[in-house]
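Students often ask what a holo structure prediction actually looks like on paper. The answer is less mysterious than it sounds. You provide the chain, you provide the ligand, and the output is a string of discrete structure tokens encoding the 3D arrangement of the protein together with 4-O-methyl-alpha-D-glucopyranuronic acid.
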Amino acid sequence: MEAFRPLGERRTLIRGSGPLVETVHGEVAWACGVFGGEVVREGSDDAGYDLVLDVVADGAWGDEGFAYGREGGRTTVTASGQRGLLYGLFHVVRLGGTAFQEDRPREGHRPAVALRMLDHWDNVDVHPVMGQVERGYAGGSLFWRDGRARGELERVRAYGRLLAACGINAVCVNNVNVHASEARLLTDRLGEVADLAAMLRPYGVRTHLSVTFAAPVVLGGLPTADPLDEAVRQWWSGAAARVYAAIPDFGGFVVKADSEGQPGPFTYGRSHADGANMLASALAPHGGTVHWRAFVYDHRQDWRDRSTDRARAAYDHFAPLDGEFADNAVLQVKHGPMDFQVREPVSPVFGAMPRTRLAVEVQATQEYTGQQRHVCWLGPMWSEVLRFRPAGEEGSAVGELAGGGLVAVSNVGDDPYWTGHPLAQANLYTFGRLAWQPSADPLRVLDEWIALTFPSAPKRLTEGLRPLLRGSWRTYEKYTAPLGVGFMVQPGHHYGPSVDGYEYSPWGTYHFADRDGIGVDRSAATGTGYAAQYAAPWAGVYESPATCPDELLLFFHHVPYAHVLHSGKTVIQHVYDTRFEGVEEVEEARRVWASLADLVGAERHARVAERYEEQVRGAREWRDQVNSYFLRKSGVPDARGRPIW
Ligand code: GCV
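The corresponding structure tokens follow.
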């Protein structure tokens, strides 16, 4: 609230009409009501106003962009459309008092990525294993509870406001694993989705729905869901038409097909392009898009089979289909080839499908990165992904190749802080801002979040908080799975260490540690050939341990414990040293947070302090299990003689 003070204390003129302009007016009127300013509609004379928010339908700034400037004591935001005005308003809020200080020449702001979406893995029914929200660490769902719509629509509206303030413009309201009740959201329970859409719409957020590929069978009573069957195609066209009758600005469908037990076109001997295009053609007359996920792999593999490599799967399935997808079909690709690990290479799919609209999927919910009990600000990781250039320095960055959008699995629930861990809000905000501008400096975005969250904070708070968050991803990496090898988590819930947790598992995530060495040989010469899925220069860089970056070494190579990293350390000593450092860094972070107690509200401080206790406990457990495991395997002692069990 305090962040709105500079806006609310002033005189504002708003010009333009439409529902989102009403939203803007409502925001400014509310702020003025709290802080004493005044807002006027539709005056022709700008004189006497501190801020003028104007819609000029000239198309100059696109649907969502705006121009911002300050001259002669007046700040102006000019947008070509209502959405742009809303984003312009939040830009002013972000600038705070400085928006009303020095003059600034007009500068244009437009999102680099048109679709900036959060996918909720929210279940309608409570799932016996996954609960209300699959991989949710922020309480229950904002939308569903125990099989019903929660109906707390004001809260959904507040959520839309929060998302607009971060720059997010789309939400998928149900899990990609579509169970029976979620499936019906497409048909007889569509009204519940329409209610959510009505609350999100005033903040420029479009609603999307996950659908099951088997819908024609399970909902429509047809004998098949074959995408080339005429009756099936008609069924989907009818379903899409009914959705648009209820939700005219509906965004489209999200589909997880032939993945982890979800139905898909393979059942009918059809390709994923056939499946996606069938849904795309049902949505096309209404302007909708299908987001088809590329997370397709064999989750029933035999760990004895050394030729199957889960990392290869997305490329192997989808790269041959490049150019076959409809214009309104977007292939939604996880940022790495595996599954949101603390460190993975960037998926080779981004460099392999120039004739396909691609979206990058990241995971704000911290499934493998501490489950919102550990602080792990993912901004630097996401930024590395978005800046990665699959064809080398001359080629485009992933953020530029993501014409289909940027998508994050949501980390939000019904928790009063939205995200369970109050500091995990930084991930939500950073995602939105990087989606708006993938080349943005994540550290600047973090500073924005700190300034907005603690608007009148003394320097001691901002300077204490900044390093806690800035380094938290690398700290988390230091005490968990080393050098890109991934997983080592407890199976099922994925929290806490279990070095061999997935070593003999059908899901296919092995590290192959033995007494001599560790890592997965994914080279083309002697391994699974995954490294060859990259174009030059990366195929060459990753092919050899001599050029592979340290942090990905064990993802690409099986090396002896005595292998010397570019850092000059042996692999085994790196494992020991980083585990100890990681724990020390968390202990230090806990100490710094404790020292900020007088500057943060007591309740919020206690919530974070309690989670730091758990993070310290968890980090020590990781350190000791990983170190002991490798000491026992390798027989190589720690050069510094520290306690390892
Ligand atoms: C929604 C991982 C998660 C699953 C998730 C899946 C996916 O496997 O553990 O919970 O399912 O990814 O992205 O579809």
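The domain at 477-520+558-634 is CATH 3.90.1330.10 (Alpha-d-glucuronidase, C-terminal Domain).
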